[in-house]
């Protein structure tokens, strides 16, 4: 059974494996509250997952260690198991969905694991790992629904309370629920007045739906940039713990997550993956009653695929009104582009892209002008759009 003794024991066992990730004050991200970040994105494997997997492996019997371990993961748990197994001289086989970022696959191999790519999502990798457990005799290291794994994650709460003794709330992302289960259980045993809030993305709301329904729900599919928390079905243990100890769960959109990733890069010089930024997005967009409160968001991981980072940043810029597009219908005659560019410049916008195309317009001499701009915010976009309309230009679409 999960207990405080087990979580304190995990803290001792992990002392030589886990990197200290000191809480930092975050300015300019969520000004309505006093926001602090627990940067698990700076962990040895780039994620909190190493805590639970390392403690689980440390608790194995000598016979279990001799046979080796198998695990399934979207990427972060994989690296934690691989590192912990290597440190103990244990063979590890990791099943990953073939959609996992290449960076996570290569990092897992780099920590010494044998990687088995599985067609589908996390749940398909999970089923393959169980097959290998049964056929090869490996010990299965569950990514979240295991008391030792949950105890390892609970050490995060001990560290937060050791640094900040007067916080009002902790926010963390939920995939399968291991992270928030460990944190919530620990917090409620020691400081039950502290609120614990969970966050899922709208494209993968398995725990959110389950808690609302009062029973475990399985999603038909998941779709989100936050691949680390794209889980179809919560765990039995985590569902019970979250039902009992978590105060509320909210959903964030992919666009809100992208905005949080962008804010962390710009304001904190911190790189977070989608799952890692979800808790920050919840604070930014006030998903919980935290106005004026002292809040810690757990930045659970930073293993974002660099090839997708630019797309994520673009979505964050669009969400914040920092990047925008206009489609303008013009009469195809000299000087039109000059006038449009001049007005945008006078309004303080910066044109970054122009596409001129003829099409089926209301006038036989008409054309379309697609403009990409750098802007300050949504109000700035509206100001530019109004100024262009006042000058007689026909705005077909604004994004």
Listing every helix as H and every strand as E from the N terminus to the C terminus, the arrangement reads HEEHHEHEHEHEHEHEHHEHHEHEHEEHE
User: Strand-residue fraction?
Assistant: 15-25%
Helix content: 40-55%
Low-confidence stretches: none
What can you see in these coordinates?
This protein is an alpha/beta fold and 399 residues long. The longest helix is centred in the middle third of the chain and has 17 residues, at 147-163. The strands form three sheets. Strands 1-2-10-7-8-9 form a six-stranded mixed beta sheet, with helices on both faces. The chain has 15 helices and 14 strands. A hairpin with an 8-residue loop joins strand 1 and strand 2 (34-39).
Give a short overview:
The protein has 399 residues and is α/β, with parallel strands linked by helices. The protein contains 15 helices and 14 strands.
Break the fold down into its secondary structure elements and pairings:
Layout: H1 4-13, E1 24-25, E2 34-39, H2 49-58, H3 62-67, E3 69-72, H4 76-87, E4 92-97, H5 102-110, E5 114-118, H6 122-136, E6 139-141, H7 147-163, E7 169-173, H8 178-190, E8 195-201, H9 206-213, H10 236-245, E9 248-252, H11 254-268, H12 274-284, E10 294-299, H13 306-320, E11 323-331, H14 336-346, E12 350-357, E13 366-374, H15 378-390, E14 394-398
Parallel strand pairs: 2-10, 3-4, 3-6, 4-5, 7-8, 7-10, 8-9
Antiparallel strand pairs: 1-2, 11-13, 11-14, 12-13
Helix pairs in contact: 1-7, 2-4, 2-7, 4-5, 7-8, 8-10, 11-12, 11-13
């Amino acid at each position: 059974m999960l207990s405080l003794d087990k979580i304190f024991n995990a803290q001792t066992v992990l002392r030589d494996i886990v990197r200290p990730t000191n809480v930092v004050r975050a300015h300019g991200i969520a000004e309505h509250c006093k926001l602090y970040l627990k940067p698990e994105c700076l962990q040895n494997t780039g994620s909190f997952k190493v805590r639970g997997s390392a403690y689980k492996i440390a608790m194995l019997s000598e016979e279990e260690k001799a046979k080796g371990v198998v695990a399934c993961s979207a990427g972060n748990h994989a690296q934690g198991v691989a590192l912990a197994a290597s440190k103990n001289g244990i063979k590890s086989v990791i099943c990953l969905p073939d959609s996992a970022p290449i960076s996570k696959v290569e990092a897992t191999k780099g920590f010494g694991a044998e990687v088995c790519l599985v067609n589908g999502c996390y749940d398909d990798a999970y089923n393959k790992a169980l097959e290998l457990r049964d056929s090869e005799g490996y010990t299965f290291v569950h990514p979240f629904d295991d008391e030792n794994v949950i105890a390892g994650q609970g050490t995060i709460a001990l560290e937060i309370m050791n640094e900040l003794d007067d916080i009002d709330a902790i926010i963390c992302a939920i995939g399968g629920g291991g992270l928030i289960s460990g944190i919530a259980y620990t917090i409620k045993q020691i400081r039950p007045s502290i609120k614990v809030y969970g966050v899922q993305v709208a494209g993968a709301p398995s725990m959110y739906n389950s808690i609302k329904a009062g029973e475990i729900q399985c999603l038909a599919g998941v779709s989100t940039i936050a691949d680390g928390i794209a889980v179809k079905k919560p765990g039995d243990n985590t569902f019970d713990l979250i039902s009992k100890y978590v105060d509320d769960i909210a959903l964030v959109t992919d666009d809100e997550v992208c905005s949080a990733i962008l804010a962390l890069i710009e304001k904190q010089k911190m790189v977070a993956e989608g799952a890692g930024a979800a808790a920050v997005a919840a604070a930014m967009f006030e998903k919980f009653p935290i106005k004026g409160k002292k809040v810690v968001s757990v930045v659970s991981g930073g293993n974002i695929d660099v090839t997708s980072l630019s797309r994520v940043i673009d979505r964050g810029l669009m969400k914040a009104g920092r990047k925008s597009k206009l489609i303008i219908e013009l009469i195809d005659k000299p000087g039109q582009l000059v006038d449009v560019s001049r007005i945008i410049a006078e309004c303080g916008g910066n044109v970054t892209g122009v596409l001129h195309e003829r099409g089926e317009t209301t006038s036989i001499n008409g054309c379309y002008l697609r403009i990409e701009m750098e802007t300050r915010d949504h109000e700035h976009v509206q100001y530019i759009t109004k100024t262009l309309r006042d000058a007689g230009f026909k705005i077909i679409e604004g994004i």
